[in-house]
Amino acid sequence: MAWIIVDLDDTLLITSAIYQKARLEFAQLIEELKLGNSAETINLLNEIDWINRKKLDVAKERLAISMYDTYCELVKRAATDPDLSIREKCFDIMQKVFTHRYRLVWAARKVLTECKNMGHRMVLYTRGDRELQERKIKDAKLEEFFEHICIVPHKNEAQLLNILLELAIEPEDAWMIGDEVLTDVLPGLNLGMNVIRVWGYHEYEPAALPKSDRLYNVKSLVHILPILEKLDFSTNQDQITKITRQIPTYNKY
Ligand SMILES: [Mg+2]
Questions:
Q1: What separation in Å is there between the alpha carbon of 85 and the centre of ligand 1?
Q2: What value does the mean pLDDT of the chain take?
């Protein structure tokens, strides 16, 4: 038995593609208004959203506010007057993100079922707006797989350590599974956990992947199964490392 701590967005659920669709819809609106081309608008939107992230954090309205801020900046550059109805259009675009029925990644239920059948104990660990994350979890019927569900405003080393301490999980017996280097991979490795980074559903990763004997880098969620199946958790860590090194089909860093 091992503890497995699993990320939600872009690990179990297709998420960032839905946000990217909203960004493109906004960029098309800007192009129709003749205020800029799509690529430049998306770059500016990302810059403004990065600034807004510092004050608005994971507020679910943040991207809609960033869209309107981007529109206002483009209007200013064009030396014209803003149309206040555009603000409503930005919120309408984001409404689709909130009400979207998020899809599980391919074979997610099979993977979770098999992990449970292998006797592993699982924790769902996600950051974001609580109401939105709760709805996604409920819609995808994920509760049945997890002993604990942690929805937090920030994912970092201290937050992950809290989970390990609260559940009395030994890091060397635990696996972190997620897509983001800064919030999933690094905190897990720094705390001494084993980590599987699933990169195939992730739109953009600014951070470099670290090198570690305890890190696997796989494309799809289904690829975690052969790694976990090879483990014999009654053995010590040296043996676990030895066994996992025999798996040749995935990139190991
Ligand atoms: Mg994620």
A1: 33
A2: 89
151 phi/psi in degrees, rounded to 5: -110, 120
For residue range 223-237, list pLDDT tens digits in order.
Answer: 999 999 887 554 444
How many angstroms separate the alpha carbon of residue 11 from the centre of ligand 1? 6
Cα torsion for 195, 113, 148, 119, to the nearest 10°? -80
Over the stretch 21-35, which tens digit does the pLDDT of each residue have? 999 999 999 999 999
Domains of the chain with bracketed CATH = 3-13+102-244 (3.40.50.1000), 16-99 (1.10.150)
Cα(177) to centroid of ligand 1, in Å? 9
Please report the beta strands in 53-208, taking only residues with DSSP state E, as ranges in sequence order. Answer: 121-127, 148-152, 174-178, 194-198
CA of 98 to the centre of ligand 1 (A): 17
Residues near ligand 1 ion, CB 5 Å cutoff: 7, 9-10, 179
